[in-house]
């Protein structure tokens, strides 16, 4: 580890430091072990970046390993999406891409090894009986009547399990540990089951599959992982993890360290729920921008840098807690504010007619692309007699402190001229057809020659040259006041997606490419949707609005 980075260390780094100091390990290998049963979400991003970050910091290695030992829910589609997402996040596994299913033979050998040592036995109890025998938190369990089978009989039966001699669920292989252990995980846990399932990688080669608690430590050990970092719910499984690597007699066995899962307010993490939304068609696939899967965040316009910043600010904790979704929004604003050009787009347009501007004339006004970042250069925007402004930038009868357009008031059209509202034209039903104004030809650029004060500044788009596009605005997908209904179903926010079919934008935006990001002044950061846009017909997703009451907590 570099000396200059040794400032403040989280508890995992302290544990690794200690292991290196004491010579338990002389190097570091970490891994990210997703189960390919869904798309990755923001919680997984934390785990990816944590594991990859540790490998980098200690000049170690980082493995990507698919934990594909449960074929029923696993699919190649998920393998592919996970690879794409991790690559996009910037974690590099180089040539160390592994599949747990490649180790099935080795796991089988480990099981045989345990049987030979008298540490595992084939059990004929049914799943219900095993549960009954297991005891409870307050009562010890009872030994299975099959616990004392001879090594020879166990070997023969286990081989028969593999050969397909038994029905699904009729026989299991169990570790022989201690039915009286205060830790229920140690009460002769099942380590292999009979299950006829077609595996996405090994096909029908196997009809027995290892259980997670047995498979995972072996996968780590085979790969030479040193620090197997997982989430808190596995803390009680650690004694079993240690038992497996010890009894299988791996040299330099890995060590498990747990940290708290990342939970976010107002969103849905948890593949189980996301999958429901996808399968019921409530969202437009795993990458629907309202979700917090990596694919959804990417589609919505988030950057890998913003997610890295977010994960860093969250830190690594030993206790579960929820992080405010606003922190994620803060991170993307921080990342984009200097990177994106600021353009004008009118989401809810109403016509503004400048009656004293010469008909048929168009002029071009110079505008900086980003006032805080001169490197982004400048452009020229068209201006003429007919413009669009936001409908809510005009009020016929304004309340106090409304400084935007109303009859008699003078406002600044951003980067252009000062205009004074002269009236409004309405249809019979009261709908506004156009707002009228006169401009001060001496105020080009937006400042009065006599220095008179103008409070309101509004944005606009030139009507004749405007690009037209669909714009999508998002809110949380679940209701603020409770994610779940009483029956356990999700309490969905009906306004989570608002589609604006015809927003008007600066002309150059007609050619915006998928994933391109912009700030639309006053309206937020937007990105071009990669799925629904067509050449010349972009669809814009709002990544995040500009304002927030959110403040980064002061550093302790
Ligand atoms: P989910 O609960 O969303 O279904 P999972 O834990 O079942 O997720 P896995 O594919 O088994 O998903 O997880 C891969 C890795 O990601 C594991 O090491 C797991 O601990 C970690 N992980 C999963 N969810 C989170 C989270 N919310 N925060 C941090 N790490 C997580
Ligand atoms: Mg899981």
Structural write-up:
Strand 8, helix 8 (238-247) and strand 9 (255-259) form a beta-alpha-beta unit. The protein folds into four domains: 11-100 and 210-264, HUPs (Rossmann fold, 3-Layer(aba) Sandwich); 104-209, Glutamyl-tRNA Synthetase, domain 3; 265-344 and 465-556, Beta Barrel (Ribosomal Protein L25, Chain P), CATH 2.40.240.10; 348-459, Ribosomal Protein L25, Chain P, CATH 2.40.240. It has helices at 11-21, 42-57, 76-89, 104-116, 127-134, 151-163, 212-222, 238-247, 271-279, 294-300, 304-314, 325-336; strands spanning 29-32, 61-66, 97-99, 120-123, 172-175, 190-194, 208-210, 227-231, 255-259, 262-264, 321-323, 342-343, 345-346, 349-354, 362-368, 378-384, 386-390, 410-413, 418-426, 432-439, 457-458, 461-462, 467-474, 497-505, 517-520, 524-528, 539-544. Helix 7 (212-222) packs across helix 8 (238-247) and helix 11 (304-314) crosses helix 12. By secondary structure, the chain is of the alpha/beta class. Adenosine-5'-triphosphate binds next to helix 2 and strand 8.
Tell me the number of strands.
27
| Regions with little confidence, pLDDT below 50 for 5+ residues | 1-6
Structural class determined from secondary elements: alpha/beta
β-strand percent reads 15-25%
